[in-house]
Q: What sequence folds into this?
């Protein structure tokens, strides 16, 4: 019996004994795809690669690799505490263990911005798809026709429980990665002007400043890897599978994105970068039609599939975190009710679905799906910087105070300092220079959300049930 196991058996959990419990029905592939799905590799790459190439030039794959390294350092640090305290609370449990309940609530409220993900991702990608369908297939649709079914379908899968939604994530997420790799390999096998080239891996191709900016915008590609943590109580052998998924999702998603990006750039032609960055139509769609003809619609379907996966994964994350907050006495008890048959956080799922439909519809109608999406991207980037840095500090404090024999200066001090400094730089470059209106409003919304998180943390500090480190571990056993 290891130190974590000794802690876990020290104090029985009383919070789950009185009613239904989450069931351990998720195998490792489901845990892994939960994190990869939240990163939405296909949808995000299709939207980001042209923009990132405007800064990093052909060296976009290098920017991706650097972003992977940064995220891996974060994951290595977090995986240590995830191994000891696997919980549906995810960051709430980790930060609470290291810094106390108010800090845990503060970080978790910031993380709840993921609740916007189903609505904003679905609305924007629905808009992109309707434009492509109209331009290339003469199919006229309005974006809500795709937006509403995506949100409701994901809600239904999440409502049916982790066995059902976990299988959906594995199947749909695998299809997404296969299609993206197929496009990349098509470009490598049949490259455009300039031929097969390793130029995308030449760090000297852009300016150093351009490469750094490319890294800044590439970071957003890999947010979501932490989404494996909240399914800990529904995962088989979570002390092994959650850390493996946190790190493995970054490695696997990074490999898929780097290969696909390289193939897209080679397929377009390394001698035609100017045309790539200035194309009025997203280059991956042009390449899909060039290589696959009428079957190029597969990429459109893969993007829709990616939206479904990220919406489902984010729904699972938020509902589990809210459930854990309710169980700990922070959120209203209504959110802590599990479905008697499916053992899913049914009430939290219903509430999130209603919020997603309202927010997505209002945001899409007033600002437009594209503006809503980029405002959301800025908000989540800024909030997650605070979340990641807070998690770094909490892990260091936890191991220094409560697990001193396993305290590692490298993993728990040096790596957190390096990644926190990098994240601060990412935040700075995200707001300097200021984005154009209305995207710049995302900065003020993010600041306002931080204020709300502080108020909630202060206001709920007396409502939180007393739970020491032993009970935090025991709640998942």
A:
């Amino acid at each position: 019996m290891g130190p974590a196991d000794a802690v876990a058996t020290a104090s029985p959990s009383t919070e789950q004994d009185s009613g239904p419990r989450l069931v351990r029905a998720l195998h490792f592939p489901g845990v892994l795809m939960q994190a990869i799905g939240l990163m939405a590799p296909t949808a995000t790459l299709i939207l980001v690669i042209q923009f990132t190439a405007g800064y990093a030039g052909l060296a976009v794959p290098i920017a991706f690799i650097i972003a992977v390294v940064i995220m891996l350092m974060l994951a290595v640090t977090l995986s240590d505490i995830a191994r000891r305290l696997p919980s549906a609370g995810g960051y709430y449990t980790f930060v609470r263990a290291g810094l106390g309940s108010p800090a845990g609530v503060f970080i978790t409220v910031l993380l709840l911005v993921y609740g916007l993900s189903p609505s904003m991702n679905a609305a924007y990608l629905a808009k992109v798809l309707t434009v492509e369908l109209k331009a290339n297939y003469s199919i006229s649709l309005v974006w809500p026709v795709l937006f509403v079914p995506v949100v409701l379908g994901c809600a239904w899968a999440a409502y049916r429980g982790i066995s059902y939604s976990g299988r959906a994530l594995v199947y749909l997420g695998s299809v997404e990665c296969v299609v993206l790799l197929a496009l990349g390999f098509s470009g490598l096998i049949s490259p455009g002007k300039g031929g097969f080239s390793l130029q995308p891996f030449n760090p000297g191709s852009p300016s150093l400043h351009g490469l750094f900016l490319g890294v800044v915008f590439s970071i957003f590609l890999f947010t979501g890897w932490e989404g494996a943590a909240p399914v800990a109580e529904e995962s088989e052998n979570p002390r092994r599978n959650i850390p493996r998924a946190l790190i493995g999702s970054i490695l696997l998603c990074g490999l898929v994105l780097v290969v696909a990006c390289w193939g897209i750039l080679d397929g377009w032609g390394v001698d035609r970068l100017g045309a790539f960055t200035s194309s009025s139509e997203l280059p991956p769609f042009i390449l899909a039609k060039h290589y696959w003809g009428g079957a190029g619609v597969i990429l459109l379907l893969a993007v829709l599939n990616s939206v479904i996966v990220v919406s489902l994964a984010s729904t699972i994350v938020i509902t589990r975190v809210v459930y854990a907050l309710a169980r700990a006495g922070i959120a209203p008890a209504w959110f802590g009710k599990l479905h008697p048959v499916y053992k899913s956080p049914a009430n939290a799922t219903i509430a999130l679905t209603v919020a997603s439909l309202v927010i997505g519809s209002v945001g899409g109608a007033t600002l437009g799906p594209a503006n809503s999406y980029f405002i959301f991207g800025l908000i989540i980037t800024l909030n997650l910087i605070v979340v990641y840095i807070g998690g770094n500090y909490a892990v260091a404090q936890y191991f220094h105070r409560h697990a001193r024999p396993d305290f590692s200066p490298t993993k728990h001090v040096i790596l957190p300092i390096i990644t926190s400094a990098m994240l601060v730089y990412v935040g700075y470059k995200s707001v300097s220079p200021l984005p154009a209106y209305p995207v710049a409003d995302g900065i003020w919304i993010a600041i306002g959300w931080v204020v709300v998180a502080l108020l909630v943390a202060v206001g709920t500090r007396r409502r939180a049930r007393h739970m020491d480190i032993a009970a935090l571990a025991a709640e998942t056993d």
Summary: The CA atoms of residues 28 and 241 lie 6 Å apart. The radius of gyration is 22 Å. The chain has a mean pLDDT of 85.
